[in-house]
Design goal:
By secondary structure, the protein is α+β, with helices and mostly antiparallel strands. The chain has five helices and 15 strands.
């Protein structure tokens, strides 16, 4: 048996190899010997899980394909060894670029390792993130300044087609609202391959959203489909609320069409897995504030 100091050194070698591969964004096949066949990766929030070495390594690869990591520092390392099991924890400090934005985060990564033969392998892993901060904004095209003569309806359509995030509000069983930031799949700069999805609709403000089928948010929507989606460009005092009853999409062909490269980082079992969920909101009301006053749009026709 190796001494505790040798074991500690080996475990940190495993962590450093994984982090270095993520920094480089390639060579993930060389990580295969470091993970147990039945490894489980649980994303922050614990609403889903990736099971199995191939699925987990694919989630690493897809996540790193979506970002460029500028810095990934490890400190405050803590390793507890119990015979053939070890718990590895360290504080990470990371800066990366994702979808045109620079983000930073501090938090802790926790890995459970087991001794397999003469070596150690990762069998379980999660992150406990801190608070992310956007250092540089904006995604190209995210400004919503308007040309003279642009109608209010056109301004609102431009708003929802350029913001990277919308805020979805659902209602729980006790009648309390829950608001969550969501990727805005209507953004034509981030999701250009979905632009045709919104053409020739009877309602110009139809939106699609994606979340885990196993999330609390999904459970609230199934119990009460009444929701609102809010889009806001705060520095221009322009906000738009779309309200109505949301529909959970069961059509696999439509789900396949909406699926994006790299989404296994959210849905590790792929586009036919049990986690992947798509919703459609065909709003029945549209209200907001634009610069100096409230407004309400007539949906389905001219504003």
């Amino acid at each position: 048996m190796a001494s505790n100091s040798e074991t500690t050194e080996r475990l940190m070698q495993i962590v450093c190899t994984i982090n270095k591969t993520c920094m480089e964004g390639k060579g993930f096949d060389k990580l295969t010997p470091l993970f147990h066949d039945d490894v489980v990766i649980v994303p922050p929030g614990f609403c889903t899980r990736a099971v199995g070495r191939d699925v987990c390594l694919k989630s690493y690869e897809d996540a790193c394909a979506q970002m460029t990591i500028e810095r990934l520092d490890a400190s405050d390392k803590q390793i507890d060894i119990y015979d053939s099991t070890a718990v590895v924890s360290y504080k990470y400090d990371c800066i990366w670029e994702f979808q045109g934005k620079k983000l930073e985060d501090e938090g802790r990564e926790i890995l459970v390792c087991v001794q397999d033969g003469q070596d150690w392998k990762v069998v379980w892993r999660t992150l406990i993130p801190g608070s992310r901060e956007i250092e540089t904004c904006p995604v190209e095209g995210a400004q919503t300044s308007q040309a003279p003569g642009t109608s209010l309806k056109q301004q609102c359509l431009q708003l929802i087609e350029t913001l990277p995030v919308c805020h979805l509000t659902t209602i729980d069983s006790e009648g309390f609202p829950h608001t969550t930031a969501m990727n805005n799949l209507r953004n034509k700069h981030l999701y250009p391959n979905l632009a045709e999805l919104y053409q020739d609709q009877d309602n110009d403000f139809v939106i699609y959203l994606s979340t885990s089928q196993q999330s609390d948010k999904m459970a609230r929507m199934l119990a009460n489909p009444k929701v609102s989606a809010y889009f806001c460009q705060a520095d221009q005092f322009h906000g738009l609320m779309l309200g109505g009853e949301i529909e959970v999409i069961a059509d696999q062909n439509l789900k396949n069409r909406i699926w994006q490269e790299g989404w296994t980082m959210y849905y590790p079992n792929g586009l036919e897995g049990p986690e992947y969920g798509i919703m459609r909101l065909v709003p029945t009301r549209a209200k907001g504030w634009c610069k100096n006053g409230p407004f309400e749009l007539k949906l389905g026709g001219a504003s």
